[in-house]
Write a structure and sequence with these properties.
Blueprint: E1 8-11, H1 17-28, E2 32-37, H2 40-50, E3 54-57, H3 63-77, E4 80-85, H4 100-121, E5 125-134, H5 147-166, E6 173-179, H6 186-189, H7 199-205, H8 214-225, E7 236-239
Parallel strand pairs: 1-2, 1-4, 2-3, 4-5, 5-6, 6-7
Helix pairs in contact: 1-8, 3-4, 4-5
This protein binds NADP nicotinamide-adenine-dinucleotide phosphate (NAP).
């Protein structure tokens, strides 16, 4: 219950999926929580359902919004302890079909937006605070159709490593979480029809025999955000039901 007592957290993309589950977990563990999102109605609904969280409308694809978010956080909280950069979009598109526009859409949110969200909020993070970047096992896989998405996530893993060194003087820990397939609406939002998402086939490839639940990712994020993880920085965690382990035979 007390794992995150007296900590203030900002979660980007907190109205759905992993961000929403993490907001609930942070709250249950005693943190003060601010969620962001780009759709006012969805964000307000999520905040109401969570109960007791603050919310702010900010599109992670617009660096101006990161500045506005930072101004809001400064005025309202002064300082924060936890920044969970979770907002992201998926894109499934063959390499040859990728346009400059579709490339920019994904990169602007997943990588550029994440980068400048951290940069604008950084002055507000307390010494001893922590940043967690939500990447994906795609950062290391060669999944067909995921060239832009995977590259955007690989950029985040790189950023996490660099920041863990650059922010060490301020005792800010920076870690990256790489989930495997998790039951959230992200693929449907990316236009992948529900019937094309073969969860059963996917589950068979996973040693645990099922895809993940957002709450399972949330618990790892809460641990990394807590002082129990005080010796952990510059690290990445696969949380993927074992999908990253490919048997050569069998
Ligand atoms: N689900 C998986 O299998 C999986 C696996 C590995 C990594 N991930 C990563 O996990 C993170 C969370 O995704 P999820 O699976 O929980 O999907 P989700 O339910 O769609 O949640 C994504 C969240 O990010 C928000 N978001 C997207 N673009 C945004 C923008 N421009 N500005 C502000 N908020 C924005 C979404 O808001 P809207 O509702 O407005 O879209 C939503 O709140 C993403 O970074 C994703 O890449 C997911």
């Amino acid at each position: 219950m007390d794992l995150l007592n007296n900590k203030t957290a900002v979660i980007t993309g907190g109205n759905s999926g992993i961000g929403y589950a993490t907001a609930a977990d942070f709250l249950a563990k005693g943190a003060k929580v601010l969620i962001t999102g780009r759709k006012p109605e969805a964000v307000q609904q999520a905040a109401a359902a969570l109960g007791g969280v603050d919310s702010f409308i900010a599109d992670q694809g617009k660096t101006g919004d990161a500045q506005k978010l930072a101004a809001y956080v400064r005025d309202r909280y002064g300082k924060i302890d936890i920044l969970f950069v979770n907002a992201g979009v998926a894109a499934i598109e063959p390499f040859t079909s990728v346009t400059e526009e579709s490339f920019d859409t994904v990169m602007d949110i997943n990588l550029k937006g994440a980068f400048f969200t951290v940069q604008h909020l950084l002055p507000l993070i307390n010494e001893g605070g922590t940043i967690i970047l939500l990447s994906s096992v795609n950062a290391y896989s060669g999944m067909p159709g995921a060239s832009v998405y995977s590259a955007s996530k690989a950029g985040l893993n790189s950023l996490g490593r660099t920041l863990s060194r650059e922010l060490a003087d301020r005792k800010i820990r920076v870690n990256v979480v790489n989930p495997g397939p998790v039951a959230t609406p992200i693929l449907e939002k990316a236009g992948v029809p529900k019937e094309a998402i073969d969860a059963e086939r996917l589950a068979k490839v996973l040693p645990v025999g099922r895809i993940g639940q957002p709450e399972e990712i949330a618990r790892l994020v809460s641990f990394l955000a807590s002082d129990d993880a005080s010796f952990i920085t510059g690290a990445e965690y696969n949380i993927d039901g074992g999908i990253n382990v490919h048997p050569l035979i069998g």
